[in-house]
Amino acid sequence: MEITSHIIDTPPRDAATVLVLRQGHEGLEVLMLKRHSDSKDLGGVFVFPGGKRDEADGTPEALATLQQDLGHLHAQLGEPELQTEHAASLFVAALREAQEECGLQIQASDLQAWSRWITPRMPSLMSKRFDTRFFLARAPHSQTAVQDNHETTEVLWSTPRNALIQYWQGTIVLAPPQIMSLSHLSLFQSVEEAMQDAAQRTPPVILPEPFDQDGMRVICYPGDPRHPVLQRALPGPTRLHFRNKRFEPEGGLQALLHGPA
């Protein structure tokens, strides 16, 4: 994992990511896909299914496939400045990406807006900027997630806690949005609990603020003393440090698992 310091001045592109959830023997499980090692961005990293919004996602034909009230979907995002159709197109993008990347046909009624991540001008790991809406989704019954063997090469179902432990042990590689999202998800024991929590609040806007300290990249989040937004957007740590060739919080693994350091 190589850290970059280049600045990107182009506006972030709209994108959608889906955290597909199912109930397992140890509690809530989330689906992750390993990106192809030859990928330009995040090669070999485990991510949630997702990708950029296409113009075709906003056509009347595409919006009709949602079979949902577009105003209700718009309200989920908590972004009144967006046009209703544009907001709904992000749901289309989420459903399309889930089908393309792991073969799951999810219904719009099983999606719930959860968070919004905006890539900073100094992305650290990416070559482009994205304005990504993260959605929770119930895993469809009687369907099996499979990698596409093009963009993704492996499927992993795991509890958020176990995924973070595997990351800490070096078994899997994660990027900061996945680390922080898994830390947040580890608070919930069931799919319904997570979905209900998301439905009761406006998705937080997370604009990471990277900076270098003592030759080390640090990424801070809302609520951190170095972040311009004083109110926390996420539970858990407010900053990650790049050391030991990975991103770590102060307090180590227990900080991600919401336990004592």
Give an overview of the whole structure:
The chain has 261 residues and is an alpha+beta fold. It has one domain (13-256): Nucleoside Triphosphate Pyrophosphohydrolase, CATH 3.90.79. It contains seven helices and twelve strands. It has helices at residues 60-64, 70-77, 84-102, 160-169, 176-185, 191-199, 253-256, and strands spanning 13-24, 27-35, 46-47, 50-52, 111-118, 130-138, 152-158, 205-206, 209-213, 216-220, 239-243, 246-249. Strands 1, 2, 3, 4, 5, 6, 7 and 8 form an eight-stranded mixed β-sheet that branches. The protein has a four-stranded antiparallel β-sheet with strand order 9-10-11-12. Helix 2 (70-77) crosses helix 3 and helix 4 (160-169) packs across helix 5 (176-185). The two termini are 26 Å apart. 38% of the residues are buried. The model has no long low-confidence stretch (mean pLDDT 91).
Topology:
Blueprint: E1 13-24, E2 27-35, E3 46-47, E4 50-52, H1 60-64, H2 70-77, H3 84-102, E5 111-118, E6 130-138, E7 152-158, H4 160-169, H5 176-185, H6 191-199, E8 205-206, E9 209-213, E10 216-220, E11 239-243, E12 246-249, H7 253-256
Parallel strand pairs: 1-6, 5-8
Antiparallel strand pairs: 1-2, 1-4, 2-3, 2-7, 5-6, 9-10, 10-11, 11-12
Helix pairs in contact: 2-3, 4-5
